[in-house]
Specification:
two-stranded antiparallel ribbon; 6 helices; six-stranded antiparallel sheet
Length: about 170
């Protein structure tokens, strides 16, 4: 996604169009901020302003330490949401002045949905009085519920990531 200094779209590739659920011809001349949730638009404006003033790369990375609140929500015409991370590289003209941004986006929607599903499973498992544990294909604990921890008198910290033979 190529933006001018004001955040107006000057070019966009087919992958970005698919992510946005929009046709390429509908995007040039349109502000990137119009396609974002208002809080995300404000955060992106600040990031581009601050990085632009310093001539640095702007944006965020997947797995950002701030968590999901750092993900950017893109609005699609059909009403669905696409959660992304982005990074903007400053573009310069021949004289070295700021000419806009080359912005790369990564769709983290599936990752976010999977993490939410795991969290919901964990909440449901902890509500169960039954002992529940999940062991991966290599024999390492990936999840234990509260009942399991109480029955085994072990904390999750003592168990998770360890091989079943180390816990026995």
């Amino acid at each position: 996604w190529v933006l001018d200094e004001a955040g107006t779209t000057t070019a966009v590739n087919p992958a970005m169009c698919r992510m946005l659920g929009r046709e390429a011809r509908s995007l040039p001349g349109r502000s990137v901020y119009d396609l974002l949730h208002p809080e995300d638009a404000a955060r992106m404006r600040r990031s581009l302003r601050d990085a632009g003033a310093a001539g640095q790369v702007a944006g965020q990375e997947a797995g950002h330490e701030a968590g999901h609140e750092a993900d950017t929500e893109l609005a699609r015409p059909d009403g669905t949401r696409c959660w992304c991370t982005w990074q903007a590289i400053p573009l310069r003209d021949a004289a070295g002045a700021g000419a806009g941004w080359l912005v790369t986006w990564s769709d983290v929607t599936a990752q976010r949905q999977a993490e939410n599903a795991v969290q919901m499973f964990g909440l449901a498992a902890d509500a169960s009085p039954d002992l529940i544990s999940v062991v991966d294909e290599t024999g390492h604990y990936r999840m234990v519920n509260d009942a399991w921890c109480r029955a085994n008198r072990l904390s999750r910290k003592e168990v998770l990531g360890r091989h079943v033979k180390q816990v026995a």
